[in-house]
Write a structure and sequence with these properties.
This protein is an all-alpha fold. The protein has 13 helices and no strands. Helix 6 packs across helix 7.
Amino acid sequence: MNYIDLLKLAGIFDKQQNFRLSDRIFKIVKAQVDDFNLDEDPLGISDIKPSGMKDDPVVAQLRQMVMSGQITEQQFWIMLEKHKPGSFQNMLQNVGKAGDYDVDKIQSNISAQGIKVAPKERDILAQFYELSNDVFVDFIDSLQSNFASSLRTLARQNQLPEMFNEINDHRAGNLLMELHEPSTKEEFLTREYLELRAHGISLDDAVAMGSAGDYENINEVLNAFIEKMIPSFTSQASRITGLRYQEDDVARKLSGLTMNDMNERIENALAELYYIYKG
């Protein structure tokens, strides 16, 4: 999972009014940003409005300071916010919204099949991208409450430290994602994550706990969730395109998803079916 995916998760919890900036962004995002290549824009500065942010000399200096080790990624965000108040909020408001790069990836998949995408159709592809992000939001929402309840129960039974007694849905959701793809930098591993691992609780264990033993791994839960959502996907895709999507076609395209390919598979499946139906 890259830093954009983690920013999506941050946006989810922010909308729930329990978003903790340092907990999710500073500890997880900065752990994932391993390569501060200016050309690749890893901090996403070009996506922050106003668009001139990327060429701002102060921002460029801050980026160089991160690259040289003079400041941490956490200090970068703090100093950026002081220089351009509201810029971080602008970023969060655009979490889950399709940018040109996101639409380009879907268009590239379609073009590889010999199909020409008309400029006006890029708006449709952008909506497929945003729909896939809504699915991500709903899936995490479906998991975190049960996991939080399980952790509180274990804490009351003295099987986990007291700190888990008051864990909320938000933090439980964070922990699920940390278990799914923990930081590769030891200093960024959270205490809660380390406690779970010390007690032998893996992501598969978390899934089993949260599903009362109905599922063994997160991809099983994901595919069961997707299966239930097929009618909704079909209806939403039909509204976006004005074409009549068929549930059987959508279900076939979305079988066997994993957490790592979930968003890309949804976007591409809906786009491919659009051109099949249209053609």
